[in-house]
Amino acid sequence: MKKRPLSQVESEIIEQAGGVPKEQSLALKKLILARRGKPARYVVTSAQNSTPIHRNGFRSLLTYCKTNDAQLLVIPYRYKNPTSIWSRAARDSDVWATELLPYLIDERVFMNANLILLADIMTQPTAMNPLEGFETITGPQSAIIGHPKLALLTIPTPQERLPKILTTTGSITKKNYIPSKAGKKGEHHHTFGACVVEVENEQRFHIRQLNMRSDGSFCDLLREYDGDAVRKYERVAALVMGDTHVNTVDPSVVSATFTNPGSIVGTLRPEYLVWHDVHDGTAGNHHERGRMFHEYVKRSANQSDVGLEVRRTCEFIERYTPDKTKNIIVPSNHNDFLREWVENTDPRRDPQNLAFWAETVLAILRAENTRWTPGGVSVQDPFAYWGKRFLKRVAARTTFLRRDQPFEIRGIEVGFHGDRGLNGARGNRNAFGKIGVKSIIGHGHSPGIGDGCYQVGTNSVLNMTYAAGSPSGWLHTDAVIYPNGKRSLINIIDGRWRLA
Fold it and tell me: What confidence score (pLDDT) does residue 159 get?
């Protein structure tokens, strides 16, 4: 078979590239160690051997670092295949583009006491589950792994600790795969980008995704970086919040999200707020029906009035929705607690809620949505019914989605909660990652990224009594949708969401 001639770019890669410079790698490690315990910002990406860089994307990262006083780190990885497009004539497969040499690091290093950079591990770019097998390698510490497929998951830890985060980086080198099944799948999932790591002190850190468009530009917070240019915009497209659970919402998350100077909503000014499990359903929780001590404690704490809890939920939405922001209420299993309570409670045994129960039953029976349809029975959602009546200031800007009602923001489907999965099965992130539509879901309380699906965490307190005694991967995590249609997760750690 006749080999095609090398292009000028390929020739330059082969002739100008070099292996990972050991002295430079050690110098970067020393730099990170010298900053331990102090505020520092890093941009971490990865690069494939014998492969050209995405030039505009690389310039965008350098511009970001210059603008935000960040250090660029590039983790090398190998594609060991003799038919790799860019390495057919390479004399040594362990070479990297010359522009990357000052930033390559292949050392394992603690960025603080809770976060390890696993730059000493070179992963195979065609791995479909690049985080598989790394769950225990760093003990209780979170870890960053260089890989072109964007993935993130949390590993449950004992409840007195925050869960450990495992994340990949995305890549700054071009797509370089052979036309095999594994190669084509790797090419499909190849993500140009990086993660920004903000180390606050020896314990706390923040990670966000710098997810590039095909032209190498990307957004972070209220700025777009495109080569040498930095452009500001007024607001983001949406903030998809972790499951709110108003009745058990964490006060530190409320402050970080809505009220503190420099809060997430105050800073990003989203066009949409997307609410998952906004209603907790404590008062009518069917899982606690008939549990004598639970009912006694709730009654003593004024937590057994169903109508009052619905009002509190709506008052929360009213209080924290900014002017000119629209609300999307995603149908969720905890919101559905109200429907379950109405359908299955015996009002004769619950005189405190008798009047509200009767009003709700009558309203559902008389609603236009309670009817026979070609697909079967349709019933008015009682939470949506009361929400539309209890909301005042933001009522016209609030949409209560139906279970069968999709809703896209910048090409991202946000109408799935995640409790119901494919073909009627129970939902999970892996399943939603296979539907071929980019989505953001909630429900699991453990954030993550898998294929085309991002999952937010929870904004409730993390030590919920019903989950007591088991290790937890729950985390306070929202997702932002940028004007360019790209996404990033935002974690709230100890009431803080970024490096000031």
Answer: 65
Exposed e or buried b per residue across 391-412, where buried means at least 16 C-beta atoms within 10 angstroms of its C-beta: beebeeebbbbeeeeeeebbeb
Q: Which two tokens stand for residue 300?
A: 């003593």
Mean pLDDT across the chain: 89
**Which residue segments constitute the domains of the chain, with CATH numbers given?**
8-232 (no CATH), 238-491 (3.60.21.10)
At 17 the pLDDT is: 53
Between 464 and 374, residue with greater pLDDT:
374
Buried b (16+ CB within 10 A) or exposed e, 265-283: bebbbbbbbbbbbbbbbbb
List CB contacts of 414: < 8 A, sequence separation 6 or more.
Answer: 238, 240, 274, 328, 330, 407, 408, 439, 440, 481
Quote the tokens at residue 94: 């362990």
